[in-house]
Amino acid sequence: MQELKDLGVTVFIVSTGRGNRLELSAAASAPAEKHLHFVDVDDLPIIARELRGSILAASCVLPTGD
Predict the structure, then answer these.
(1) Superkingdom of the source (predicted)?
(2) From CA 15, how far away is CA 27, in angstroms rounded?
(3) pLDDT of residue 62
């Protein structure tokens, strides 16, 4: 996962609560509060709009080249 982050990829993680919180927090992009979500499967539609907006915002950021 670190290789992706080093390449500038924003890593979002959605967990249904079965993963190790520390490992998932380390795998998600910083800040984890913005990129790591713990939800019940039934609640996924509730965060879908917010998550979609965050993904679109992250995908529109272009790094400056050399």
Answers:
(1) Eukaryota
(2) 12
(3) 63
CA 61/CA 19 separation, integer angstroms? 29
pTM: 0.74
CA-to-CA distance for 7 and 42, rounded, in angstroms?
Answer: 33
8 closest CA partner among 53, 66, 58: 58
CA distance 4 to 8: 7
Asked if 24 contacts 36 with a C-beta cutoff of 8 angstroms, the reply is yes
Q: Dihedral (C-alpha) 1, 56, 34, 64: value to the nearest 10 degrees? A: 70
Helix (H) or strand (E) holding 46: helix 44-59
Structure tokens at 64: 């400056």
Side-chain-facing half-sphere of 64: CA atoms under 13 Å = 0
Q: Which residues pair with 36 in a beta bridge?
A: 13
